[in-house]
Structure prediction request, 183 residues.
Amino acid sequence: MTEGDEALVAAVRDGSERAFNELVDRHQQAVRTFLRGITAYDDAEDMAQETFLAVWTHARSYRGGHVRAWLFSIAWRKAKGAQRSWFRRRRRDSEYHGAPAPTRDMSAEDRLAVRQALATLPLAQRAAVVLSFGCGLTHPEAAEALGVPLGTVKSHILRGRDRLRAALGESGGPKGPQLREKS
Prediction:
């Protein structure tokens, strides 16, 4: 946890715009990275803004714990809501709205391969993988963010990693991306 995050949330509860801006500055990139990993790039930007709007308007819902995991849980709910809307729109007009965003420290070719492989994972599995590999959350923090049991996150990560390895080739391809989990 970043030093002072809980104090910032307490100040946001009391209406401090300065504390809110500090909280956004500290965590907006991580929230955007997570959302880009599980949704279309353009949608991720909007959902990140909606996430922080929800933080401002519902700061009283924070019950303690890892602040970043709490922020990811809000973003996750936004992504699930957006997915439900997307499926309704898709049924109406049968359009596909994109794939997860690439990782910055890979070649363009590897980013495309990872993006395509991530797009094959179910949303919950994709979210667990992105939180663990892309956002650096531990398994317990990812479980808290997604609002699921720890065992579910571990299963999602294990299955997702295996599916990604299969999609990318056992070693990630000839010079392909390597899947490295942060713990």
Notes: The helical segments are 5-13, 17-38, 41-57, 67-93, 108-119, 123-134, 139-146, 150-168. Residues 9 and 59 are 7 Å apart (CA to CA). The radius of gyration is 17 Å.
